[in-house]
Amino acid sequence: MKNSLRHLDLNLLVTLDALLVEHNVTRTAARLHLSQPTVSVQLAKLREAFGDPLLLPGPRGMRPTARANELREPLRDALQALAQAVAPSTPFAPQQATNTWRIAASDYVESAIVLPALAGLRAAAPGTRLAITELRPSTLVQQTEQGQIDLAFFISAETPTGLRRRAMFTDRYVLVGRAGHPKLKRRPTLAQFCQLEHVIVSQDGGGFHGVTDTALARLGLNRRVVLSVPHFLFLESALANTDLVALVPSRLVRNRATLRVVEPPLDVPGFETLMIWHERVHRDPAHQWLREHFAHSVTRTSASSVTDSH
């Protein structure tokens, strides 16, 4: 071939494929909805590009040359593969899907978002798999960009820029201790609150200061933080088995019989949780379905909690 592929009009290859089927310029023109002169011009260009006559006059139309016969199968395979590549995406069929999805989330999000959606996900897409990985904010953009994770759930104030996002819900903080805690029979005063022994979740490891301490500092106050833990799961066990207390997101302690929940005596800013993903999967039908499944699950869970509270 005299010219490289980038200099060859793709339409010429479509014409060549039809000529190798029809062995006739007139029938090829009809097949491609072109005029006969147009096909003749394209055949001339093909002959020049390949440096071969490709099709020669014969007693019953045209007969392919040896070079044309060599091209027949690989050309057909290449055009079929190209047609498949540019074809519109087929609708996602969850019942037949075998996707493995990877989600980055904290244990709080596992409890508030992933767990309520899990039964529905298994029922709707039984052949899929779900891997929940540790949330690493510093590498989140890189992980989504490289396909290491498909979705992440993150607090809006800390979400990296450059990623697609969708609001899931807002949550607020409540004061929690064990059921029967002697100092949580009613809402404590601010002074009583500061004297309680507190637990804090520090996901960056070992911290003893959080949003509650920032709010107290504005009032010239401080509290007694005596335990720092990395996960909410351990926090719940610590609260249920000691007289420690903690300010935690309200969704984390719904319907926990072992815990006592009261309103805190100061206003601690809540937060919004976002679902985030990379542009590369934004239009993928399977990914769109997964995002909608989580969004609908959150909506149902939120509506259920409102109904239960009445």
UniProtKB/TrEMBL annotation:
Keyword terms: DNA-binding, Transcription, Transcription regulation
Entry keyword Oxidoreductase: no
Keyword Iron-sulfur recorded: no
A GO term, aspect molecular function: DNA-binding transcription factor activity
PROSITE patterns reported for this sequence: HTH_LYSR
Domain of life of the native organism: Bacteria
All copies of domain HTH lysR-type, residue ranges: 8-65
A Pfam family annotated for this UniProt entry: LysR_substrate
Similarity field: Belongs to the LysR transcriptional regulatory family.
The name this protein goes by in its record: LysR family transcriptional regulator
Organism: Corticibacter populi
